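Sample intake sheet
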Amino acid sequence: MSYSDFTLDRVRKTFGLTISDKIDIFASVHEVECPSLLAEVLRENVPLALASNTEKSRSEMIIAPILIAVRKYLNNQISLFSGIDFTVDSTQGLNGNCDFIISRSPELLILNAPVVTIVEAKKENINAGLGQCVAEMLAAKLFNRKDSGLIFRK
């Protein structure tokens, strides 16, 4: 089993989670102006990515430029990993590759805690990928606790 095998219902049952569909959870976060270079890249890339209609094209042409701009906005004080293995606990199915992982550590060669964001590219059906995303977030929580010496409890 790997991250992509999880449905939302399966991850909820496996880990005893409660699903909350809260709206506007980031309403209090202030907006950041989109850099002109990123806006230009997206104007050019989005139609290409959508026409190709694959997760890979969306990942490379839309998501990667945005995450690189985020890293630049944060003065390169975060690390960005693409397509790396993120096996945290195979016994629980928390293994596999993640499209993108952002760590608060500026280290670029080794993934260090804390993992703050995991991004998955999806073709069209976002809801079908929610289980995978939740499983990856749980893995990040476990990874961060292990790296800081805390013990993971469900």
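Comment: Residues 150-154 have pLDDT under 50 and may be disordered. The chain has four helices and three strands.
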